[in-house]
Design goal:
Number of strands: 0
Order of helices and strands: HHHHHHHHHH
Shape: globular
Number of helices: 10
Largest sheet: none
Distance between the termini: 6 Å
Strand content: under 5%
């Protein structure tokens, strides 16, 4: 059970927020309960949605890589809500179910490129304990990404540092759509506290 229930559209007195929710409905097939809960403070949810847009959907890093980085960071932190959302978005941005399911084997799986391995290595370390990220990790990233792209990758990890903490603290209820995609892609997925 969530600690705070998500608000319905008719409980939100801000037209801009409700309009943005329509975008989420069109692109994802649902509106995340995390932002429905945040909507109790319009400036927080608007700022978050703008940051989410800038980090995940703008820039020059391939969106599939950003989604896989965000998935890896969420796996490392243990947030089942974000794991499910990022499995869903990885699928939307053309990561195969096989690749999503193999993310724990990214270092050895032929499904991942060297560039993806470098980015996911950083995401796993930073998602677990940011102090684990080393100069060697950044040297490896620099083989495949320019400095601006490295900023995008770290921003993706940091965005999910916020979301992992938000959703696990709030016990945000997982929506059916991302849960079904994750079960299809990974099999045996359990939502944990996010029921």
């Amino acid at each position: 059970m969530p600690h705070l229930r998500p608000l319905e559209n008719d409980e939100i007195n801000d037209k801009e927020i409700v309009e943005r929710f329509e975008h989420y409905n069109k692109t994802r097939g649902f509106v995340p309960n995390s932002i429905r809960t945040m909507s109790r403070r319009p400036n927080i949810v608007k700022t978050f949605m703008a940051l989410n847009q800038a980090v995940l959907y703008e820039g020059t890093v391939d969106k599939e890589i950003k989604m896989l980085v965000s998935l890896a960071s969420s796996l490392a932190s243990g947030c089942r809500y974000c794991q499910s959302h990022m499995a869903n978005l990885s699928s939307i941005y053309e990561a195969s179910d096989e690749k999503i399911a193999a993310i724990w084997e990214f270092e050895t799986s032929d499904l991942f490129s060297d560039a993806e391995r470098a980015a996911i290595t950083l995401a796993m370390k930073a998602g677990t304990l940011p102090n684990e990220a080393s100069q060697e990790d950044f040297d490896e990233l620099a083989k495949y990404f320019d400095e601006g792209q490295i900023v995008e990758i770290v921003a993706s990890v940091a965005l999910f540092g916020y979301l992992n903490r938000w959703n696990d603290t709030m016990a945000t209820q997982l929506e059916e759509y991302p849960k079904e995609v994750t079960k299809r892609a990974v099999g045996g997925f359990e939502e944990g506290k996010h029921v």
